[in-house]
# Entry
Amino acid sequence: MTPETETILVTGASGQIGSELVPALRKLYGNDKVIASDVARPSPALENSGPFEKLDVTSRQEIGQLVQRYRVKVIYHLAAILSATGEKFPQKAWEVNINGLYNILEASRELGVRQVFCPSSIAVFGPATPRVNTPQDTVLSPTTIYGVTKVAGEHLCDYYVRKYNLDVRGCRFPGIISNETLPGGGTTDYAVAIFYEAIINRRYTCFLKPETRLPMMYMPDCLKSIIELMAADFSRLKHHSNFNVTAMSFSAAELAAEIKKHLPDFEVDYRPDFRQAIADSWPESIDDSAAREEWGWKPDYDLAAMTADMLRVLVEKQRQGRLEYP
Ligand code: AKB
# Structure
């Protein structure tokens, strides 16, 4: 567990996970102990609840200055370019995902950071990997640049564990479904957009085929996995930065049918685009038994519970005039 006196830095704090992880960490460790950072402008909620610093993770100097100024001991490194944006801008994906991570690890090694969390992704897998119940330790031959950076990132993190005794941990996240901040530039983003469109327009055009099945997780489980993995006893971990974690798997059509149980007039049509090939290269479901054995991972939300909660929260936001969707 992070000692209460330690300062925590979160990169990519304005993103989908960061915007909910920062409040969760501030609740646990105190507002002033958690420095939120991002290249993008913070939301008022993020800015008003504790320190926020503009940070470009491709600048080693900026990271070093922040770590020194706040005497940072723990870093949650969330800044990344996701799969769909990565295919549009592969050089940028490499720059942010690889050079950014290298800068974070080097600053941590040099400046006495104690612990680092860096998310990985189901994008580490590729067409040659078993697609159903994908094992923890298996073929990693991704076909996207995002996947390539995540495989390299996992190995780099594990190298710092072995070589420098830096405590680096990470999960291979599936698609994350949330109702606070929209995801940006991912292939699994449809599973968030569909809820907003269902509530606002009762119609959604999905960019994946109806039968496309992917592993997914609701944000409360995602936050729980991060916090529990970081608190786990290091000596019990056989893996470090590459834990498979999952909560549910569903196809686009199954998600639409679940939403229809609550909103019977909801209609979906399907117009697959370039993201279909990315989704087709990823597993349908993954085996997270290593995470369960090594640090007690267990999700709380399945498809039915997640759908009911997403609709409850978003409908309430709409009632209060706070439902923001581009
Ligand atoms: C994406 O779709 O790129 C991400 C991921 C699965 O890592 N949500």
